[in-house]
Design brief:
- By secondary structure, this protein is mainly β.
- It is about 0% helix and about 50% strand.
- Strands 2, 4, 5, 6, 9, 10 and 11 form a seven-stranded mixed β-sheet that branches.
- The radius of gyration is 13 Å and the shape is globular.
- It starts with a strand and ends with a strand.
Length: about 130
């Protein structure tokens, strides 16, 4: 049984930091793309960042580049999203997702949700002004 467990959300003031974690069981991240998505109230879900499980290459959308850092710990089968200098517009439920094996294309196509076989349950990030 495959599960992705997302955690680390919370309430933080503008300018603060949070680190999200996504731990997989039943599937290895080593041959997939693992991405973080977010969905703000009343808005569509959007892809934020992705990482290649095979070589660690990364992609960020422009609005978070320089503030967010995605990384992985292969030994723990965990992907992290370090979020610094948070803004109120970053308030959203954050989801992690993993593609099927050998789907390794990074870039804007991380936004294509049909690529992902597995989804975590979401963790709420609230940034107060």
């Amino acid at each position: 049984d495959v599960q992705l467990q997302a955690s680390g959300g919370g309430l933080v003031q503008a300018g603060g930091s949070l680190r999200l974690s996504c731990t997989a069981s039943g599937v290895s991240f080593d041959s997939s793309i693992i991405s973080w998505f977010r969905q703000a109230p009343g808005k569509a879900r959007e892809a934020v960042s992705g990482i290649s499980g095979s070589d660690g290459s990364t992609y960020y959308i422009p609005s978070v580049k320089g503030r967010f850092t995605i990384s992985k710990d292969s030994a723990k089968n965990t992907v992290f999203l370090q979020m610094n200098n948070l803004h109120p517009v970053d308030t959203a439920v954050y989801y992690c997702a993993a593609t099927g094996l050998y789907d390794v294309c990074l870039g804007p196509t991380i936004a294509v949700e049909s690529r992902y076989d597995y989804w975590g349950q979401g963790t709420l990030v609230t940034v107060s002004s």
